[in-house]
Specification:
mainly alpha, 67% helix, globular
Length: 249
């Protein structure tokens, strides 16, 4: 018990509470799903044109995770613990919490923009594949008003994103900017990689995956959105001299 207490007491308060909240929400989705309550419908991020969307989801979605397994939650929370502990101590609790939430909301906005530009083509392709039609035939049917509005709304409501990944990618970005030359060991590489190259590599991979539709179930552009939001926040703080004054850069 002393060892356990020492471990939890070593985690700064904001990071610790974020870990607890995310784990509790994951557990709640499993329990409530068994009695017919779908938290993803209310708290997951929906496309802004969908009937199930509400603005609060821009915030709440980042505390939700896939409840079909523990992998999604585990890797996000492991990264949050691994990098968030140091970042919170450097930035301070209030600034760190502001940064985390800003990155999560920034990721949500980028995901909404991505959906805005891709939902129509995705719907057309889905209708064509599901009805043995060509894309041109589906487009003609939609133009003629032969596609039921309920079908379109149902499709929009099926577009849901959950997870702390956008905020976590923002934390990775901040870590790379504050400790650019810190050596990091990343599987499967048997040699250390500087934090700045790790961040650039992650960003490049997410951009490549997003453009080429690799792992379509993952919100790659939301991850980039979290990094972009974090970059501008850190850049502003650096300009104001509120971070970076102690040799972190």
């Amino acid at each position: 018990m002393n060892r356990r207490g020492s471990f939890f007491s070593s985690i700064p308060p904001v990071t610790l509470h974020l870990l607890i909240i995310n784990c509790l929400m994951w557990f709640a989705t499993i329990v409530l799903d068994r009695i017919g309550i779908d938290l993803f419908k209310f708290l997951g991020l929906h496309f802004w044109q969908a009937s199930d969307f509400n603005p609060a989801q821009l915030f709440t979605y980042m505390f939700m995770h896939d409840n079909s397994g523990i992998t999604h939650l585990f890797f996000n929370m492991f990264s949050l613990w691994m990098f968030g502990v140091t970042l919170e101590r450097v930035l301070g609790a209030k600034r760190y919490l502001f940064y985390y939430v800003t990155c999560g909301i920034g990721a949500a906005f980028v995901q909404e923009i991505t959906w805005q530009f891709t939902w129509h083509s995705t719907l057309v392709q889905a209708l064509a594949a599901g009805n043995n039609l060509t894309v041109d035939q589906v487009l003609a049917a939609m133009k003629a008003g032969q596609v039921a509005p309920e079908l379109v709304d149902s499709f929009m409501n099926s577009m849901v994103t959950v997870g702390a990944s956008g905020a976590v990618f923002g934390i990775l970005l901040a870590f790379g900017m504050l400790f650019p030359n810190m050596p990091m060991y990343i599987i499967p590489f048997p040699f250390p990689i500087k934090a700045k190259w790790m961040v650039i590599g992650y960003g490049a991979i997410e951009l490549f995956f997003g453009i080429h539709h690799v792992m379509n179930g993952v919100a790659h552009f939301a991850h980039l959105g979290g990094m972009i939001a974090g970059f501008f926040v850190i850049l502003y703080w650096k300009y104001k001299g509120t971070v970076g004054g102690n040799g972190y850069y």
